[in-house]
Amino acid sequence: MANNLHFKRHRRLRSTNEMRALVRENHLYKDDLIYPLFIIEGEKTKNEVPSMPGVYQISLDYLEDEMNELQSLGVKAVILFGVPNEKDSTGTGAFHEHGIVQEAIREIKSKTPEMLVIADTCLCEFTSHGHCGVIHDGDVANDESLKLLADTAVSQAKAGADIIAPSNMMDGFVIAIRSALDEAGFTNIPIMSYAVKYASAFYGPFRDAADSTPQFGDRKTYQMDPANRLEALREAESDMDEGADFLIVKPALSYLDIVRDVKNNFNAPVVAYNVSGEYSMVKAAAINGWVNEKELVMEKLTSMKRAGADLIITYYAKDVAKWLDE
């Protein structure tokens, strides 16, 4: 009777750890990881973000130790967010020569030049109103904001940033920044565009960390509707046409279909942003003993690689690097 059975025996390839490793289709590597850092003004300051246990706002004097730890773990890239003491209506601190992000870039590159530094390029952390551009009549003025974003990108490149990562979602932001970088002589600095950025509820803890909560309204007129899929392809296509070198999809976990769509349609590295809300949910469940943190995080990040991500921005970068060594 057994000789007449013709079903497939898929379990043959799952029989042992070694067999499963041999046929594994997707892998998570340390080289895939980008670690976000929140840089605050002042000295000897290290503030844990209440909604993100294990994540800190740190002052410049902690950066060397931070870089040494990351290098010892094998994490080779960071993305910087600034938390300034003073804000104004146009986000002057974002493009000031001695802004907190610019100073952090110089500090990192002077002490650990081999660390890859990505500068988040936006105004929301620096504006008194918390929006990503200049406000006119209660709305973000798109074209006027482009000039300030371009100035920010150039100032970050001058400070030594290896990659510019504009996250503002203004129309035309990639070409405005690419043109400004080229005119300033930074033709070799790539742009990691937040090409597909949804108006997501998963950003709440980040706004605590970066002190960037909008003081009125929301960001739905410039960030994308979570219900939309084809819009993501239009956004990514525009950014590629304007000169983007990387394409970010943010958030990652609820938008893995979009990660795959972007990977299938564009010949550029795709970056999944494992955002603050995703981090905080897992961390809270782990602290309460409800989940196995390591297994859950590794499964989650592997799913992003399976969906098509080449790189992952994640607050779990340090932990993942340690787990990969085990």
UniProtKB/TrEMBL annotation:
Alphabetized GO MF terms: porphobilinogen synthase activity; zinc ion binding
Gene Ontology BP annotations: heme biosynthetic process
Protein residues bound to Mg(2+): E235
Leading EC class: lyase
PROSITE patterns with a match to the protein in the record: D_ALA_DEHYDRATASE (PS00169)
GO cellular component terms attached to this protein's record: cytosol
Annotated 5-aminolevulinate 1 binding sites: R207, R219
Keywords: Heme biosynthesis, Lyase, Magnesium, Metal-binding, Porphyrin biosynthesis, Zinc
Residues that bind 5-aminolevulinate 2: S276, Y315
Active site, renumbered: K197 (schiff-base intermediate with substrate), K250 (schiff-base intermediate with substrate)
EC number: 4.2.1.24
UniProt entry tagged with the keyword Repeat: no
Record Gene3D superfamilies: Aldolase class I
Chemical reaction(s) catalysed: 2 5-aminolevulinate = porphobilinogen + 2 H2O + H(+)
Binding sites annotated in the UniProt record for Zn(2+): C122, C124, C132
This protein's pathway: Porphyrin-containing compound metabolism; protoporphyrin-IX biosynthesis; coproporphyrinogen-III from 5-aminolevulinate: step 1/4
Cofactor requirements of the protein: Zn(2+)
Function recorded in the entry: Catalyzes an early step in the biosynthesis of tetrapyrroles. Binds two molecules of 5-aminolevulinate per subunit, each at a distinct site, and catalyzes their condensation to form porphobilinogen.
Family, per entry: Belongs to the ALAD family.
Quaternary structure (record): Homooctamer.
Name this polypeptide is given: Delta-aminolevulinic acid dehydratase
Organism: Virgibacillus oceani
Phylogenetic placement of the source organism: Bacteria, Bacillati, Bacillota, Bacilli, Bacillales
